[in-house]
Structure formats: structure tokens, C-alpha cells
Amino acid sequence: MKSVKKAVIPAAGLGTRFLPATKALAKEMLPIVDKPTIQFIVEEARAAGIEDILIVDGKSKRSIEDHFDSNPELEAALEADGKLEKLQMVQETTDINLYFIRQSKPRGLGDAVLQAKAFVGDEPFVVLLGDDMTRDEVPLTKQLINQYEKTGESTLAVVKVPHEETKKYGVIDPIEKVGDNLYQVRQFVEKPNPDEAPSDLAIIGRYLLTPEIFEELENTKPGKGGEIQLTDAIDSLNKRQHVYAHEFTGRRYDIGSKIGFLETSIEFGLEHPETKDELREYIKKLAQEM
Ligand code: G1P
């Protein structure tokens, strides 16, 4: 069995939910306290043993490339000022095998993943979406790799969501549990209305896919919203090989919505050594006034 060493991070979305902030700035560069969200995603991949990462970006995404590049002027200034901790912090992100490709037109998530075909070649790989951040003892990406090492087949992550929220996600129709938190799946449906949703198990942005997905993507017609949907290609793949669903039980942060982004910022702010004490006091004071 080939080991999983490559990851693809689609980052070509227009970020319309965060306008006007994302008019000129990539939404993946919005920080949680002091770290751009895409850096958390890259760190999760690396913690799972991923060696090479392809970022599929679009227009206005130069800042992502710059963030993971060296910045000699800044580094020299920090060194001269003896700010060695900060120096280490900015150098950390340059020591990663990152590749970039541009999705010329926003044709959907499936099309973004298809751009990774040459990079991936004939290997299993993971896809990480920037709208979900996760935390658990074992990083979610590593959990998917562990499942793959048992089955040799594609596996994606799902979580239970309130039924009325199924219309925001890809949803699975599970057949039965076939292992620890692992489901065999009858069907994958992109953003069903709650009255048609086959379950409350929603796909979150972590997928481990075999390279056969590219043939499916090439044959996938535009689906929901007129876009090439990854969920539709996965549903076709599931008819050729199994695509399993792994139920994630750790902490998930939905940073693709404004409220989720604010909640995550507060939680991380309450842990950050430079902000936690003052933020706790501030929240207490605010709560008393409400
Ligand atoms: C995408 C997928 C969807 C999945 C979701 C997870 O939707 O198409 O199946 O449930 O990511 O975040 P998007 O949120 O990009 O519309």
C-alpha cells in the first residue's frame, strides 16, 4: 500500500461571506488571534506526516504565497533587534514543501481538486478545506490516514449536525458501521434540503482520496449551484470502490461563517499567553453589562 504523503488545499474561493475584508485579501489569510487560518490547516497536514502540499489558489491570493515565502528584510530587522522568538516564528512557515497552482475560473470544489491531478499522480492524498479547523489528540488528517491504512480505500470525515443544517453540507446515507467510527456509505448527497437529507452526518473539510477520483472528476457534470461538486465525484467513486465516512468526535471550528470565526477567535484568545488573562476579564465585564 502506498503511503499518504501529499495534500491538496483548495483556496480559490471568493470569500464572499467575509466581504468587504476579502475584497483584496485572501480569506485564508484572516487571522485567528495572530495566525492566518491557512497556517493552522498546513500545520494539521504536517502533523499527520504529509510532506508535500499543493495550494490551489485564485486571484488575490498572492498574500498566501508570500506568507509561506521568506522575507529577508523582515528577518534581518528582527535579527538586528534581537527579536529571536519572532524571527523563528516567521521562518517556521518557509520550511515547508509547498506548491501553488491557480484555478483560473471558480468552477467549484471538484474542479479545484482536479487541478491537483499532475501533482498527485498515482498516490492516495488528502484534501483539507480551509473553512474547518479541527482539534483532537490525534489530528483529524492522521485519523483518516489511520483508517486508510486499514482499508486501503478513500475515507472522508463527517460530523453530526442539527438536521436543519444539512442543506449547508454534503451529507451521507450510511449503510452500517464497519469499524471504529467508520461507516460504509450508500450515497453522498451535496447540500440536500432537510426533508430530503438521508442522515445528519455532514461532510466536513477533510478527505482522503485514492487517485481514481480524478477520472470521476473529469466525468462529473456541473451539479448543485452549477459547480463541479467533489461530493458528486465521490458518489461515483463509491460505486467503483468504497468511500468510507469517518465520524469525527473531536472539536471542530467552523471558521467559514462569521459567528464561527468570532467564536474560534475568542476560544483561541482565551488560550493565547499574550491575551488570555485580559480577554477573560474583558468578557466577564461585558457579560455583567449585558
Ligand atoms: C464544501 C463541500 C461540502 C462540504 C463542505 C464542508 O461546501 O461541497 O460537501 O460539506 O465543503 O465545509 P462549501 O462549504 O465549500 O460550500
Automatic annotation (TrEMBL):
One of its GO terms (molecular function) is UTP:glucose-1-phosphate uridylyltransferase activity. Pfam families: NTP_transferase. Transmembrane segments: none annotated. Pathway: Carbohydrate metabolism; nucleotide-sugar metabolism. It catalyses: alpha-D-glucose 1-phosphate + UTP + H(+) = UDP-alpha-D-glucose + diphosphate. Its EC number is 2.7.7.9. NCBIfam families: galU. It is an enzyme of class 2 (transferase). Belongs to the UDPGP type 2 family. The keyword Zinc does not apply. The lineage of its organism: Bacteria, Bacillati, Bacillota, Bacilli, Lactobacillales. The gene is gtaB. Residues 6-264 form the Nucleotidyl transferase domain. This is UTP--glucose-1-phosphate uridylyltransferase. InterPro entries: GalU_uridylyltTrfase_bac/arc (IPR005771), NTP_transferase_dom (IPR005835), Nucleotide-diphossugar_trans (IPR029044). Keywords: Nucleotidyltransferase, Transferase.
